[in-house]
Design a protein that fits this description.
EC 1.4.1.1; about 325 residues; Glutamate synthase [NADH]; single chain; globular; oxidoreductase; five-stranded parallel sheet; alpha/beta
Length: about 325
Amino acid sequence: LNSAGHLVTVYEREDRIGGLLTYGIPNMKLDKRLVERRVDKMAEEGVEFVTGAHIGVTHSAADLLSSFDAVLLATGATWPRDLSIEGRQLEGVHFAMDFLTDSTKSLLSKRGGISAAGKRVVVIGGGDTGNDCIGTSVRQGAASVTNFELLPQPPRERAADNPWPQYPRVYRIDYGHEEVISRWGKDPRIYSISAKRFLGNSRGHLCGIETVRVQWTREAGHWSMEEVEGSKEVVEADLVFLAMGFLGPENKVIEELGVRQGPRSNVETGEGSYRTSVEKVFAAGDCRRGQSLVVWGINEGRMAASEMDTWLRNKQAACDQSRLIN
């Protein structure tokens, strides 16, 4: 948009620009100097960046609509799925993204935060976020790292119900798992296990997790889960990171703008379009399509910018035509 000749202001609620590229992806996977280099380049080209600006909290969404010709929502899908079981309030139970954010902040600004050093760590949930928590915990010097997976271990080769060209749902070892294996000699993942409650000591600190094994069965094409009788056990833990995925975008700015949301809480746009239900408000990235990959964020940003550029130019042309008629 800036290259197309528009004046662009980016509002960011964190203290640094970059979104998940800065605070969501660990430094060992993405050197923050690369993000800073691109941000500095855009700033030199005229883009204005405002940090510490939480729209709907520190800044009014209504002010955005009255101050700008167009608004793009690129807030991501950062509303984490919680685990509401007994002991959730204990000190030591954290969302995965809070841990990853604190870890990067400690590297960039030397501020202390959540640290896995010397702790018995349990990561609940898999995927990229869970794997990043595993790798970060190893690097911080955790005493042990365990990963709970509710689902059973995937097969090493495609199952009959997972043919090409579907994405292969097979057993994989990612970098975090490799580092745990290198450090302690075994894969950190425990499959078909469910956390029942968090256990704490007299000071309100987490000290363990009561778990139960589960069994999955498939009938008429549908999977069902049941607990295995007599399988309860306690896993000792000082830190738990909840990495069970995301429910969609956080709703403060969306509610204030009155933008329509779909059944999965994502911002709704027209088919093949990035325009929302509110005049001059557009959306792109995870808040529109759901949690996805960086490459999709890049593509959606470019496509949304193209549509916004066309919309702004048509709007300007209509205004110019109106002046000529008048």
